[in-house]
Structure to design on (775 residues):
């Protein structure tokens, strides 16, 4: 479902003397349907960079990133938008929403943008928020005022609102208590069961061990590692 | 009788020709505002300088002229203009609608139906019906050219929203032959139906604004309205207190400082003719013979 | 993938406009698809307003084509273009005073476009106006008030209602949240997002506010000196800017 081939990436800092910082070279990754792969490696090794490239947030210099039938390295913005709407979900560590929009709306939005009816989308949002123990009195408020853990759970609810065939999870269990952590892990397992291909970053080793089928150490994708191997 | 110091009807022949060209264009394109080089006249703007120039361009020595101001033949404005043409053109004048070949009017259409061969000349203060909402002349010209007349209904909408009905009582906008929207000059909307299908030629002159427009005989003229707020040609719900007529347009006259008032025909010729025929209203003085 | 078989709503080909020796915008090309929000960012004088004026038919470009549903809006006659402008298109100005009739009631402002396309039933016009005031969160009781009695945020929402009442397909927005308080901006952004989604609007949004662009736009075009120097998915352009100028622009902003 997710296939990365010979992917490389560098940043050119035009306003800092044109410094070119290579961050990735020759990356390969394959994730099948129903499989969950954990990206590992030390902080700064490029886990987030790879996730962002699969999401289409960072441009690739060379190589291919195929999600379903689409190669994000070649795709037009419009195709990426459609992919994000229908195929690829992303639970990031940060919540970025329009201020003032009620939490229920934030969670229902992915379904609304797919053309679901308001009642149906909000019913699904209610189920998820209840499951993730967000108190009902908060549903009508904007999540921008919530605590870190609450925002994280809103993000998760949003990411699981639509049954995406592919999912990116960036620290989905960080800052969660035991009860909620259990709920999130169950959601991940459920997604795997329905056939979702998942790439995740988990610092929570127990969680990783429970839901992930494989680990891929991104240190091997660093340009330095490539030079060493050559 | 004509004062030899002036050309016939005051204006020089070249000017009259220029105005006639504008009039012919106006007749050819009913409701379209034709620009013309309005002249200084020996009277102030607002006293009918546009109408006077049109009348001057139409008059022939054989014409009989009637001039009315709000229906009356005997107000200052009407008397002055009648005297002006009696002196500069030496034409016959009359107060009888039926006897006149040219009638210059300010703010009324006579009650007595006009006939073929007559010319009715309106004095127009502001010829542009869209001016109320769109101050730019360049834009209003374009709106006329492209028939973008939604704005006219915005004005009527505002009336209903504010007053519960279309409260525009005079200068009520009309559409001419399904094409141009036209300001009929500040005639009461009671007179609007008479604009349509009229056997007479109707000419409109705006002196200060330098515009002429026209309705040839038997032109279709429709007052703008909404389906659920149709146009109504309203008048005061009284009969004339002098001649008893129940269908003419009435003026309200305050008769004392204790609230006394009477309603009389605004068309003085019409009222006098009826009284001469023996019609009597509520407050008509007893005729002693 | 669904709706990939559609054709673009707007196709812009090599559009240029000069002011004498000075460049307004040069060689701009892009496609806009149904339901898509395209942000145009850049600082004052970068040509984004000139481009918007040319696209909306308010200014004639010197070169290039603008195809709306396949029809060249540069070559078409002015009457045709004006018909488009009051039916399929809408224009939301930065200053509501430029987009509203200040002497006409809120209801009259909203109803004008309906009357312009032939609505002649007062009751129906009023009903539509009431509905639209509700959709932009203005109390129905204010329908007969004039815009001057409204706050800046309300005026802007009224302008939006006035523009959207005829269900246009393409909306041009020139700094729609400029000049508003931050809290009022947020409310407007939320409203605009909802309307764009529910009505399937395509939007060309000119803004110098990258935060507004991030929240509203699907795609971004970055302009400098009249040229498009970068073009891509909104979050990609903001998070991984390629052109030196875009990098400067993004790094100059506090947390977008």
């Amino acid at each position: 479902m997710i296939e990365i081939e010979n992917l490389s990436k560098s940043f050119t800092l035009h306003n800092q003397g044109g410094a070119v910082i290579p961050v990735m070279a020759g990356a390969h990754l394959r994730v099948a349907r129903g499989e969950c792969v954990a990206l590992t490696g030390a902080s700064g090794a490029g886990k987030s960079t790879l996730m962002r490239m699969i999401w289409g947030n960072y441009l690739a210099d060379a190589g291919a990133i195929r999600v379903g039938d689409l190669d994000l390295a070649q795709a037009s913005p419009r195709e990426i938008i459609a992919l994000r709407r229908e195929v690829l979900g992303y639970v990031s560590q940060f919540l970025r929403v329009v201020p003032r929009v009620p939490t229920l709306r934030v969670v229902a939005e992915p379904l609304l943008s797919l053309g679901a009816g308001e009642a149906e989308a909000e019913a699904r949002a209610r189920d998820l928020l209840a499951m993730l123990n967000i108190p009902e009195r908060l549903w009508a408020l904007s999540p921008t005022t919530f605590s870190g853990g609450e925002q994280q759970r809103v993000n998760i609810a949003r990411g699981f609102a639509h049954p995406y065939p592919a999912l990116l999870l960036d620290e989905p269990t960080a800052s969660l208590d035991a009860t909620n952590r259990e709920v999130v892990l169950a959601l991940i397992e459920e997604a795997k069961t329905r056939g979702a291909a998942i790439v995740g970053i988990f610092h929570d080793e127990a969680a990783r061990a429970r839901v992930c089928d494989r680990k891929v150490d991104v240190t091997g994708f660093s340009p330095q590692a490539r030079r060493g191997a050559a | 009788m004509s004062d030899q110091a002036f050309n016939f009807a005051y204006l020089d022949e070249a000017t009259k020709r220029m105005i006639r060209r504008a009039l012919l264009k106006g007749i050819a394109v009913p409701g379209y505002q034709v620009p013309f080089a309005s002249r200084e006249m020996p009277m102030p703007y607002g006293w009918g300088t546009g109408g006077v120039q049109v009348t001057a361009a139409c008059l022939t020595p054989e014409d009989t002229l009637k001039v009315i101001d709000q229906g009356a033949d005997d107000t200052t404005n009407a008397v002055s203009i009648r005297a002006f043409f009696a002196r500069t053109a030496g034409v016959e004048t009359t107060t009888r609608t039926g006897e006149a070949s040219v009638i210059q009017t300010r703010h009324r259409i006579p009650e007595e139906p006009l006939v073929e061969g007559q010319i009715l000349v309106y004095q127009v203060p502001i010829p542009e019906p869209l001016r109320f909402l769109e101050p730019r002349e360049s834009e209003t010209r374009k709106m006329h050219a492209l028939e973008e007349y939604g704005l006219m209904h915005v004005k009527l909408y505002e009336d209903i929203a504010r007053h519960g009905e279309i409260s525009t009582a005079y200068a009520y906008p009309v559409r001419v032959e399904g094409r141009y929207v036209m300001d009929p000059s500040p005639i009461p909307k009671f007179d609007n139906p008479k604009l349509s299908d009229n056997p007479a030629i109707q000419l409109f002159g705006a002196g200060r604004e330098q515009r002429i427009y026209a309705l040839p005989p038997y032109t279709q003229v429709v007052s703008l309205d909404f389906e659920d707020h149709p146009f109504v040609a309203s008048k005061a719900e009284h009969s004339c207190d002098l001649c008893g007529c129940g269908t003419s347009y009435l003026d309200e006259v305050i008769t004392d400082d204790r609230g006394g008032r009477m309603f009389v025909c605004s068309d003085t010729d019409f009222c006098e003719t009826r009284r001469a025929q023996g019609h009597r209203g509520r407050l008509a003085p007893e005729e002693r013979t | 993938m669904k709706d990939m078989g559609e054709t673009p709503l707007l196709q812009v080909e090599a559009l240029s406009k000069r002011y004498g020796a000075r460049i307004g915008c040069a060689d701009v090309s892009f496609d806009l698809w149904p339901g898509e929000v395209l942000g145009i960012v850049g600082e004052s004088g970068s040509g984004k307003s000139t481009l918007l004026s040319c696209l909306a038919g308010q200014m004639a470009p010197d070169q290039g084509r603008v195809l709306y549903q396949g029809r060249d809006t540069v070559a078409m006659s002015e009457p045709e273009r004006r018909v488009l402008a009051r039916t399929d298109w809408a224009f939301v100005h930065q200053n509501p005073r430029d987009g509203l009739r200040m002497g006409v009631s809120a209801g009259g402002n909203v109803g004008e476009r309906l009357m312009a396309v032939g609505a002649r039933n007062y009751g129906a016009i009023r009903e539509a106006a009431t509905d639209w005031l509700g959709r932009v969160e203005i109390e129905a009781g204010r329908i007969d008030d004039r815009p001057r009695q409204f706050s800046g945020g309300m005026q802007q929402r009224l302008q939006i209602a006035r523009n959207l009442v005829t269900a246009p397909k393409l909306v041009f927005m020139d700094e729609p949240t400029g000049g508003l308080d931050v809290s009022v901006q947020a409310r407007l952004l939320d409203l605009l997002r909802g309307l764009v989604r529910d009505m399937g609007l395509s939007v060309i949004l000119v803004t110098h506010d990258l935060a507004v662009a991030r929240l509203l736009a699907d795609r971004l075009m970055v302009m400098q000196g009249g040229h498009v120097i970068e073009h891509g998915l909104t979050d990609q352009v903001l998070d991984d800017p390629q052109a030196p100028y875009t990098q400067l622009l993004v790094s100059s902003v506090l947390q977008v």
